[in-house]
Amino acid sequence: DNHSSDLVVISPGSSFKSGRYVVLEKLGHGSSSTVWLVWDSIQHQYVALKLLLHKSVESRKWAQEKEEIQILKHIVKEDALNCENVVKMYDHFEHEQHQCMVFEHLGDNLRTLLTQNSSSQDYPTAAAGLPLQIVKCLAREILSGLDFLHHQLSVVHNDLKPENILLMIPSARNSKLPLDDDACLLPAKSSYSRGQKSLSISSSSATTIACCNDPKSVQAAFGCKIADLGSACYVKSLPSKRIVQTRPYRCPEILLGAALSPAADIWSFGCMVFELATGCILFSSTGARRTCHHKDLHHLACMWEILGPIPRKVTSTGKYAQHYFKSDGKLRHFEKASLNQVGTGHLEELLQNQHGLPGKDAHELAQFLCPLLDFVPMKRPSTSQCLVHPWLSL
Ligand code: ATP
Ligand code: MG
Ligand code: MG
């Protein structure tokens, strides 16, 4: 693909840092980078090389890249203590005005897992969520990584979404990758079989299969890590101008230009858990017209419809609040719509009626999600409070 970071022509066999890193294949890309599987000929291991946009393409982002590296270094420094749920950076350097970062090699991202699931043979077109046992396991892993970022590092991730959560490769979970060439795990692929109700993650030399009816086997089979610290920042320097988070996972305080806090991640996390369980984006702005203003309005209307009225305290705080709300707290352009009649929100109904979750499951999941999706950031639970929620116990 003609991605802008391909300004440096990369193909299998290309090498970086005086031949140390040899490119094998492309692992993925994001809005600001391409990521390659490379062989580290000094450490004798497979690693992932993230090559960011050329400095000239988006010089605005250059400063943010420096912060990404600073935070990634901080993670490695603190990590020795306890955290295995945030991606580790091994090295970084500049190559012809591209910022390059070298990471541990991880497996598929959760978007890939969801896509495979929905296009399974049994149900070729239907969007489908993952079994709740798997969703709970993923949620626990993500929360423990987020807990580390928020509490140990005072860092807000600012871009939680399925694309940025990566599965770990089977035996890499508890041991270092083997140095012996033949035994290396390459590449890791995940697949989920709805018919069999099992999830398998395999590499050339190992396959882990988790049976979804058995929570313990799911827990033992795999973990996942938070990646992409590209929008992350320290709590003390939270941005007031830059728009962070990817649209569907963006919290109301960002839309309204109000103060940011770690609670912004909790909102995105809630949106992501809904999506893992249903296969559908919770706040999708596909019906919205093109301009950012219309998308924001539509986004706020979706929130209102699903979660209930937005409290006056929220509609009157934030630099842009007046753009979207009238002084009586009603959403502009939506005054006459059915919105105003909606009472307390209907997340539970949505889960049950539209996404087919059994009543008890829908109720329990809604109980877990509603506090995460509180319009008032300060009322959202912290990561440690989420971790002890009964929905997450085995
Ligand atoms: P975004 O558009 O979300 O800001 P980005 O340009 O910052 O993305 P990343 O999210 O860091 O880039 O990486 C892009 C993709 O590359 C990921 O979604 C993932 O699929 C893959 N990838 C990233 N890091 C690794 C890794 N360490 N191991 C394996 N694959 C990876
Ligand atoms: Mg990304
Ligand atoms: Mg990013």
TrEMBL record:
It is an enzyme of class 2 (transferase). ATP binds at residue 50. Keywords: ATP-binding, Kinase, Nucleotide-binding, Serine/threonine-protein kinase, Transferase. The keyword Kinase applies. Its EC number is 2.7.11.1. The keyword Transmembrane does not apply. This is non-specific serine/threonine protein kinase. The lineage of its organism: Eukaryota, Viridiplantae, Streptophyta, Embryophyta, Bryophyta.
